[in-house]
Write a structure and sequence with these properties.
This protein has a single domain, classed as HIT-like (HIT family, subunit A), CATH 3.30.428.10. The chain is α+β, with helices and mostly antiparallel strands. A 5-stranded antiparallel beta sheet has the order 1-2-3-5-4, with helices on one face. The structure holds adenosine monophosphate. Adenosine monophosphate (AMP) binds next to loops. The site of adenosine monophosphate has 11 residues, from loops.
Length: 125
């Protein structure tokens, strides 16, 4: 079920549990601000999720409440992971769903990194 992009952070969401190490993930990157792991249901040959360590629901929540250091650290981590994956050429797609219209399913901010194939049109019509 899609979730609202704002509201109280749910500490029991699946990415909070991954951050606490309560459930397994295929981590490929971590630093003080961010963790990246493979999506459990990949939509492309490369499908990685990058999440901030802090308790933020969405881009709106993160941009309003996170510190400058958290924001810089997270944005740099997304770029670093894409570079580490070797996606700079021929390119990749970033996606962050927020709220019901975007069909956000997990109420912890995450940026999808898609790569490894031609992505096609940006959105279905
Ligand atoms: P979204 O619709 O943007 O909220 O995307 C949530 C993503 O999280 C989906 O692509 C799921 O396949 C992925 N996902 C859900 N549970 C897990 C998990 N335990 N490990 C890795 N990815 C997951």
């Amino acid at each position: 079920m899609p979730v609202a992009a704002t509201g109280d952070y749910d500490d029991g969401n699946i990415f909070a549990r991954i951050l606490r190490g309560e459930i397994p993930s295929q981590r490929i990157y971590e630093d003080a601000f961010a963790v990246a792991f493979h999506d459990i249901n990949p939509q492309a040959p490369v499908h990685v999720l990058v999440i901030p360590r802090g308790p933020y629901i969405s881009w709106a929540d993160f941009s309003a409440r996170a510190t400058d250091a958290e924001i810089a650290g997270f944005v740099r981590a997304v770029g670093q992971v894409a570079r580490d994956l070797g996606l700079e050429e021929p390119g990749y797609r970033l996606l962050a769903n927020a709220g019901v219209h975007a069909h956000q399913e997990v109420p912890h901010l995450h940026v999808h990194i898609f790569g490894g194939r031609q992505m096609g049109a940006m959105l279905p019509r």
